[in-house]
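User: structure tokens for this one?
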Amino acid sequence: MKFTLTLLTGLVASTVSGLTIPNAQPETGAGISSSSTDAQIIKSTWSSWYADVATVSYFLDNVASKKYKSQTAYLAAAQGALAAETGQTAYQRVLNQELSQYEGYKASNSTLSDGTWTNVKSYLEQLTKLDFKKDCTKIQEIVKKINYGDDQYSGRCSVILPAIDTYFALAYKALLDPQTPGYTAADKGFKNWQKAIRPRACASKKERDLFDMDVQSVEDILE
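Assistant:
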């Protein structure tokens, strides 16, 4: 099924996913035309979604570690993260048309429609209206709600990103399906994009402790 959709170019981000800090380098094209094959639509949409998820995760990491040095820098990043998060709805709609025949699609689509994602976007919008220095405590509280929700298990980490993982895994499955118009064996190279980039806060405590040890080891070497 063909769509005409101008894709947003997602910012490239490096952040924590498990114990690694991968560099997300999706091939974001100029857009999708009416002549695009299904495989091209899936790749372009998937790569843009992947990059925008990384943008938001990178922003949340930087806020949590208080890396922004000015209100201007903070607001620019917050607005970019909000745009990246809200723009992902368009990618979801496109992949809904392309992946609806695969098992697992309906559950993930339902998860992204249950209100949790709306809450995440609302919290990100709130962050664009705050002062990074004056409202520091409130900002940190909102970031925690984005990551964990109100009960530690209803936020971006445990609800939204796993649902997006399913979309990405199904996108990869579709690219490897010879029945997909535009199929090419070269698309096997997309396999490393099957999990959305997480902020460090989404890792388990054990993983975060190990990550801190790794960072300290590198810092010791550099001193």
